[in-house]
Amino acid sequence: MVAPCFTEGRARHIVNTSFSTQKPAAFTATTRKYIRPVRTPYHSRSLFLRWMLTLPYRSRRGAALIARYVPQTVPPVWAEELAGKRVLIVGSGPSLDKVGQEFFARFDTVIYINFAVKRLQGTGAEYFFTTDIGPVREFIDAYEETVFRQLGKEHCIFAPIYLDQFQMMTPAGRDLFSWLRFDEAQWRRQAVKLGRLKAPLVLRYHPRQPDWDSFTLPRGGRSLPVLDHTSALTAILFAAMNGAADIGLIGCDFSAGRAASAATTQAAPDASVFSGAAAEFRKLASALERNGVDVTNHSWLINDGAPS
Question: Average pLDDT in the 212-237 region?
Answer without folding.
Answer: 96
